[in-house]
Amino acid sequence: VGQQIGSLLLTIPVYIAFAAVMAPIGALVSGLAGLDIPGRRAVAFSGATRNSLVVLPLVLALPASFALAPLVVVTQTLIELLVMVAFVRLIPRLLPEQPVGPRSDA
Predict the structure, then answer these.
(1) Which of 2, 4, 47, 63 could form a disulfide with 22 if both were Cys (CB 3.0 to 4.6 A apart)?
(2) Nearest Cα to 11, choosing from 97, 71, 101?
């Protein structure tokens, strides 16, 4: 792993870029689908995650020549976790609640 750390570090910007692109795409597509704000936020969040740990058992079964693959999957998961923490703050700014105007019940 130590000899291939440069290759591993090259994957990090790809994961970050994917999340940065998928959040606005999720917001746009869910808006076109007519979803409400909570639904649009959910699509933006879920579009940016790939559930990489689901493939980890498959990656662990690869031959020794792919020894770095499990670490790549775990790195992807760690980046996704950090992105999700950031999205807790960013997604509500990207998709704010609709302002409620004054009521005219009188």
Answers:
(1) 47
(2) 71
Residue listed under structure tokens 């994961």:
15
Rounded distance, CA 45 to CA 49, Å?
Answer: 7
The greatest distance separating any two alpha carbons of the chain, rounded to the nearest whole angstrom, comes to 75
* Three-class SS state of 69: helix
What pLDDT does residue 65 have? 86
pLDDT digits (tens, 9 = 90+) for 37-89: 999 999 999 888 877 778 888 899 999 888 888 888 988 999 999 999 999 99
Per-residue exposure over 64-80, b if at least 16 CB sit within 10 Å of its own CB, e if not = eeeebbbbbbebbbebb
Q: How far from 79 is each of 5, 15, 42, 53, CA to CA, in Å?
A: 16, 7, 19, 12
